[in-house]
Amino acid sequence: MADTDTITCPSPKETRDKDEVAHIVSDENWEKGYIMGEEIEALCGFRWIPSQDPEKYPVCQPCVEIFNNLEA
Question: pTM (2 decimals)?
Answer without folding.
Answer: 0.68
